[in-house]
Amino acid sequence: DEFELDREYQKRVIERERKFFEELKTENEVFDKRTLMILFSLLAGKHIDEFIGVISSGKEAVVFSAKKGRRYRAVKIYRVATCDFKTMHKYIQGDPRFHLRKSSRRQIIHAWVEKEFRNLRRAGEVVNAPKAILRRENVLVMELVGKRGVPAPRLKDVEVDYEKFYEIITRDMKKLYCEAELVHGDLSEYNILVKDDKPVYIDFSQSVVTQHPLSKALLIRDVKNICNFFKRKGVDCDYRELYEYITGE
Ligand code: ATP
Ligand code: MN
Fold it and tell me: Could you tell me which CDD domains the record lists for this protein (predicted)?
């Protein structure tokens, strides 16, 4: 019957991907069973044809590159075991889009991913950001920013025209604030990729809506990070002026 067919299909998929996950294990990458099942379900559901490799592996999340037809995906997987869910809870709580009733560790992480997914979509309407494709529990699938599966470099790792980039980035920060009503919340040369000589913003996990009680403090932090980076690159800038420019205050 259909269920059995599905099982057969999954078995084949699992077989094909076993090597990939075997390699992961040797790199000490341990996912819980539930997360592995989600990754397999992405393959079985043909949302992804194959996982290619690890782009980044941090304390809280791993980012894989993957292929779907001729397109490439970035798959961000939150590590349920090591996520700072207390901080996550604080960010979600003040967000009018969310009402957390029950709050197990996993549920908070799911809400976190949901929030990142929605933030990406909202930000993508006004600035360059990877297209959010789907989310499932602690897993987020988005467009891979890069060329032929090779991720674009971070602003911190390439030479650009810094005067020009300062202008574009500060204009984008204003757009994000005034039009999308979002504050990135973790903006720095680490979370800006450079593609076709333009900035692409990533990692909207900490972003909050402007009504959020933390939004002002986060914006000040973003503004300081950006100013410090560009000052080091010889751009004349002042974080108070930038804050005024963005908020109109
Ligand atoms: P970190 O703690 O290192 O900042 P993170 O958990 O915050 O990691 P991200 O910043 O979203 O996760 O992603 C980590 C890295 O993976 C990024 O610095 C970037 O190099 C790469 N990356 C993430 N998303 C994409 C994408 N859509 N396309 C290309 N590369 C990506
Ligand atoms: Mn990041």
Answer: RIO1_like
